[in-house]
Input
Amino acid sequence: MCIRDSLTPTGSLNYRGTELFLNDLPESLSQKIEFALCLDSLGANDDLFLHLSRPPKTGEATSLSILEAFTITTSQMGVNYSTVRKAINQTLDFIPWEHEKFAYKKIHGATVSSLPTAASHPLDKGSMYDTTISTKILKRNIEIIAETLTKSMYGIIDQKNSIFTGDYDGLNSGYIEQLAQFLQQTSRFPTKLVKNSETMKEFTKIINKVIPNVTKMGVEYKDTDFYTNAQSKMKVIKVKSRLTDMFLFVVIGIYLVGLYAYLSGLNTFLSEVGSLFGKKEKVKLQISSTPSHQHNIA
Output
């Protein structure tokens, strides 16, 4: 049993990088993958969850061993740990967990996360920055994953003593705090992950420190359009309300009436208005007097 690490971008874009990695992976090599363990949001909450799309089968010894090692290790460290099993919904366009990409290739996998549920939309993942990282929880979860994989690889699942003790490069508190601070201040949005970006340089330095042979692979975004300009002008159009139209209508009406009164003369205007209302009163008097006249004749 050996461990192969893969650092893929575009987690917020349906894990496009993982998909390209699996598509470019030779079939002879992909068939040797016994279990895929994906990492997601390890420093967010105190609890730890292992998300699965299906339980391991009887013949999948590696999957069974890793799941058992997780249960024993978290129990020994006093961590609230649970497995969450949810079938893959193939009708959805959005893929909530990375291990589902491996499931499409018939590779059993799981995602270990401090989040109990997955996001239902890419925008639900929140900010492009890591703003809620607890270095204490992150260090603890790194220790749990390291202990679990080591115990599973060497068949020492029942080992009660901690394998990793002391301040190694990966478990040094100062180093983890420095890395967490870097992640909080640096965007990992897909358009920012270019070849010579600060994020790529930092991750390349970390990987080369522990892995001798590193292969880089480019990722293309053919089905997604991004705003590429660093600075752009935004135009804002303020739409007037209906009350504004009503106000203008009343003001214009008063203005036209006043203009007509001024041009025709005030006396003429008042006489025309008076005659208008006078005709109505005359008509009313004629109508009301008619029944009385007929009654006298009778």
